[in-house]
Design goal:
The protein is built from 5 helices and no strands. It is an all-alpha fold and 108 residues long. Helix 1 runs antiparallel to helix 2 and helix 4 runs parallel beside helix 5.
């Protein structure tokens, strides 16, 4: 088990995304991906794949990520932390951060 990530307020993250015209969203995804990869000890979450495939598929891969890949990544993080796998229905910014916060809070 690697280092835990930063606990962030999901609502404030969304507010920052809105006030920064989306730029904070890119920063959030980058930080979240690096924290998850460090915690899992392997490059499980690729931002290049997420943004690259989303742009090539006109956003369709983004929806696939929210309903499949994102949920699987959250399941892996929860399992590695010893928590029962309980991923959100949709892995968007708010729900992913809330799920990761629950994991980070359980780690000393």
């Amino acid at each position: 088990m690697g280092p835990k990530g930063e606990i962030r307020n999901p609502f404030m993250s969304l507010v920052f995304v809105l006030f920064s015209f989306g730029f904070y969203g890119f920063y959030w995804w980058w930080k979240m991906a690096s924290e998850v990869n460090a915690f899992l000890g392997e490059p499980r979450f690729s931002l290049l794949k997420l943004f690259g495939l989303s742009s090539v598929t006109c956003g369709l891969y983004g929806f696939y990520f929210m309903f499949v890949d994102g949920k699987n990544i959250i399941k892996e993080v929860q399992a590695k932390a010893g928590l029962p796998p309980n991923p959100p229905l949709i892995a968007d910014l708010l729900r992913m951060q809330k799920s990761l916060n629950q994991v980070w809070e359980q780690i000393p």
